Amino acid sequence: MAKCDFEGRVFRTVSNADKGEVSGDTVFHYHQKGDVVWATYQGGEIVFGTLVARMLADGRLDMRYHHINHSGGVMTGECISTPELLPDGRYRMHEEWRWTCGDRSQGRSVIEEVAGARGNK
Question: Which CATH number covers residue 18?
Answer without folding.
Answer: 2.40.128.30
